[in-house]
Write a structure and sequence with these properties.
Layout lengths: L2 H22 L9 H13 L4 H11 L2 H11 L9 H12 L3 H19 L8 H11 L5 H14 L14 H5 L9 H25 L3
Helix pairs in contact: 1-2, 1-8, 4-5, 5-6, 6-10
Length: 211
């Protein structure tokens, strides 16, 4: 295989993965091996693997041991360290199957971490947080595109009372409109988002020297 065909093959694999994550409203599971992600996205495209199967694969991979290791890594980050007790308790709630607790605990921590990173003062507007997320995930890689879309279009989606309840909207959950949010997959979505956020911030710090 020449280099051109190899690059095209990699692009095709990436397109399948990106489409699957968009379709199923998952942030990228950054710790899964690339070969496993290829198998999952191929199986999903062919109809061999269902959306529920993808959920199960992700949940089985991020077991108690892997999640505790992630929390240990996060605790070493200076912009998360002072929040680690709250985050650790939320992850423990996830491990114990208490998704009613893990999700509303983790949601505000995402915004708090972003506010700390940018030393935000005053009221955090919708434009503020979307602009910050745009900057954090600015590399235009597949993972950045999926992460940014998940945060801006799903987590930050607005809602109105007596209107349809959007899927996994922060505002709908924290204002009490969404009472069906507590699933293991949704809880893991937030854990993955937090991991992607901290890893992208580390990249920004290294490349730009901005904290």
């Amino acid at each position: 295989m020449n280099i051109y065909n190899f690059v095209k093959l990699l692009e095709l694999r990436g397109n399948k993965l990106e489409k699957m994550l968009f379709d199923l409203k998952w942030p990228p599971p950054g710790n899964l091996p690339a070969i496993l992600l290829d198998k999952i996205s191929n199986g999903y495209e062919k109809g061999i693997i269902s959306a529920q199967d993808v959920d199960k694969i992700f949940l089985n991979f991020y077991n108690k041991e892997k999640l505790e290791k992630l929390v240990g890594l996060w605790s070493e980050q200076d912009f998360i360290h002072h929040r680690i007790k709250i985050i650790s308790e939320a992850v423990n709630a996830h491990i114990e199957g208490k998704y009613e607790l893990s999700i509303p605990t983790l949601l505000p921590q995402l915004e708090g971490i972003i506010a700390d990173i940018y030393q935000h003062t005053g009221r955090m507007t919708f434009k503020n947080i979307t602009d910050y997320v745009e900057t954090i995930f600015e590399r235009d890689s597949r993972f950045d595109r999926v992460s940014k879309t998940f945060f801006q279009s799903i987590i930050l989606e607005e809602f109105e009372w007596q209107g349809p309840v959007p899927f996994f909207s922060r505002n709908a959950i924290l204002h009490g409109a969404d009472i069906n949010y507590a699933t293991p997959a949704n809880s893991l979505r937030l854990i993955l988002m937090l991991d992607l956020l901290q890893s992208s911030v580390q990249y920004l710090k290294i490349t730009s020297s901005h904290e």
